[in-house]
Amino acid sequence: MDNRLTLRDRPVDVHTASEPGRQTPGVSAPPELPDIVRRALDVSRSQGFVSATRHETGRLLATLAAMRRGTLAELGTGCGVGAAWLSSGADSQVRIVTAEVDPRLADLARDVFTDDQRVEVYAGDWTALEQFAPFSLLFVDVREVKRGSVDVIADLMEPGGVVVLDDFTPSTQWPPTYHGRVDEMRERWLTDERFTAVDVMVTDDASVVLAARR
Length: 214
Description:
Blueprint: H1 35-46, H2 55-66, E1 71-75, H3 81-89, E2 95-100, H4 103-112, E3 119-123, E4 135-140, H5 143-148, H6 150-156, E5 157-168, E6 177-178, E7 181-182, H7 184-191, E8 195-203, E9 206-213
Parallel strand pairs: 1-2, 1-4, 2-3, 4-5
Antiparallel strand pairs: 5-9, 6-7, 8-9
Helix pairs in contact: 1-3, 2-3
């Protein structure tokens, strides 16, 4: 399994690709970031952490959000960067709910979205959002959920709803591997019969699993 720390768990590195305005070589994207994303990144930096969401993954989230209606959700708010990307692309009529287990970070994220009534930040673990299901889009940024909660997540999604799981290392073989071992977590998401799923590279060193509920 992929047991790496998410970027939010790492100290700030001013040379990281998550720094506003920096782009990973070979990735075509405008350097400008949405204002709400910059605001969330500033809060993240003020706490000594970088974003858990790469710019490339964020742009993917924004694009997917623009195609969805109903309720969008995020498990693992951090300082609100993922939710900011979702809100930057989402329709004005959608609802975005996000949960953060650290009450202090949840309060900081709430401040980011003071002017956006679509976004609701809850302090608690990811189960705090079950009451708002079914979801049309769900961004999972909690390692424990990725590892063992496929059954639960499947029940939270509406037909055609899309689950986004990030922070994977690209693999060009089957079954997918990580550090020479089969990545059983990723394999399970890619083969579960309740989903149609694909592993998509967003940079040379990162990929995202997209899983659509059948």
